[in-house]
């Protein structure tokens, strides 16, 4: 299964925010989408999820045109999204949040168990309200809820934001586990080293355009590219 964007152009009003963006994500692959703030990373994810309609170009999952679907239908086709800020139901319990994920594609007890096995701390807090969890636990819950939809493709927007290093490592381990299970992961991440450590390929976006696609090893050999486009030194 492959998710593809082909020359996608998106606008906010008259502001042209994605310019001929093309990329692909295969099953069991981690694709890091990197760029400075405002480069178009989150907009790319929103376009995939139908939350922002492209004016031109095509977004497809195994040939099926996602751009023709209403936003609420896209998760049912196997694409799940963990947005920046998590967007849990804070007054519902951990279990109730997870069951909301199960409703998307009719998952059952086995699906729930798989998600809890990835984040065991949630099993201890099934009756706790989501809004009372720590930031790291909330991020785990948001990811587990997305996994309850049994996605073929998982979009993660800044999963490490505001988390302690140990929790960042735990989330990255989970991404590697999902990769091993054949899930494609599109990872937007400000922590460049974290993305380079687990991604198979990196796409760099700048002012709405893809300016570079390479393996992490190739980028590590060209530190001037990271400095020019991301403002980081390695």
N- to C-terminal distance? 34 Å
Q: What is the percentage of strand-forming residues?
A: 25-35%
- Sequence stretches where pLDDT stays below 50 over 5 or more residues: none
The domain tally reads: 2
Strand order of the largest sheet: 6-7-8-3-9-10
Question: What would you call the shape?
Answer: globular
CATH class of the largest domain: Alpha Beta
SSE order in H/E notation?
Answer: EEEHEEEHHHEHEHEEHH
State the share of residues found in helices, binned by percent: 25-40%
Radius of gyration: 17 Å
The class by helix and strand makeup works out as alpha/beta
Number of helices: 8
CATH architecture of the largest domain: 3-Layer(aba) Sandwich
Work out the number of β strands: 10
**Largest beta-sheet details:** 6 strands, mixed
What fold name goes in the CATH topology slot of the largest domain?
Rossmann fold
User: Average pLDDT, to the nearest integer?
Assistant: 92
The CATH homologous superfamily of the largest domain: P-loop containing nucleotide triphosphate hydrolases
Q: Can you describe this structure?
A:
With 234 residues, the chain is α/β, with parallel strands linked by helices. It folds into 2 domains: 2-78 and 152-230, P-loop containing nucleotide triphosphate hydrolases (Rossmann fold, 3-Layer(aba) Sandwich), CATH 3.40.50.300; 88-150, no CATH class. The protein is built from 8 helices and 10 strands. A 6-stranded mixed beta sheet has the order 6-7-8-3-9-10, with helices on both faces. A 4-stranded antiparallel beta sheet has the order 2-1-4-5, with helices on one face. Helix 5 links the parallel strand 7 (153-157) and strand 8. Helix 2 (94-105) runs parallel beside helix 4 (135-147). The radius of gyration is 17 Å and the shape is globular. The model has no long low-confidence stretch (mean pLDDT 92).
């Amino acid at each position: 299964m492959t998710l593809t964007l082909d020359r996608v152009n998106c606008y906010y009003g008259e502001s042209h925010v994605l310019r001929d963006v093309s990329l692909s994500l295969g099953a069991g692959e981690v694709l890091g989408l990197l760029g400075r703030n405002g480069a178009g990373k989150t907009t790319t994810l929103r376009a995939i999820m139908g939350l922002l309609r492209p004016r031109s170009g095509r977004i497809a999952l195994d040939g099926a045109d996602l751009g023709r679907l209403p936003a609420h239908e896209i998760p049912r086709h196997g694409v799940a999204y963990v947005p920046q800020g998590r967007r849990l139901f804070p007054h519902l319990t951990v279990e109730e949040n997870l069951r909301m994920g199960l409703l998307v594609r009719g998952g059952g007890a086995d699906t729930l168990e798989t998600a809890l096995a990835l984040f065991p701390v949630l099993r201890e807090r099934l009756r706790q309200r989501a809004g009372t969890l720590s930031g790291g636990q909330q991020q785990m819950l948001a990811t587990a809820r997305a996994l309850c939809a049994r996605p073929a493709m998982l979009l993660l927007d800044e999963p490490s934001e505001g988390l302690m290093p140990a929790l960042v490592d735990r989330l990255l381990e989970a991404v590697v586990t999902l990769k091993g299970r054949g899930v494609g992961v599109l990872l937007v991440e400000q922590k460049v080293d974290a993305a380079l450590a687990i991604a198979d390929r990196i796409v760099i976006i700048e002012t709405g355009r893809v300016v570079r696609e390479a393996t992490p090893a190739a980028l590590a050999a060209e530190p001037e590219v990271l400095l020019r486009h991301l403002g980081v030194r390695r």
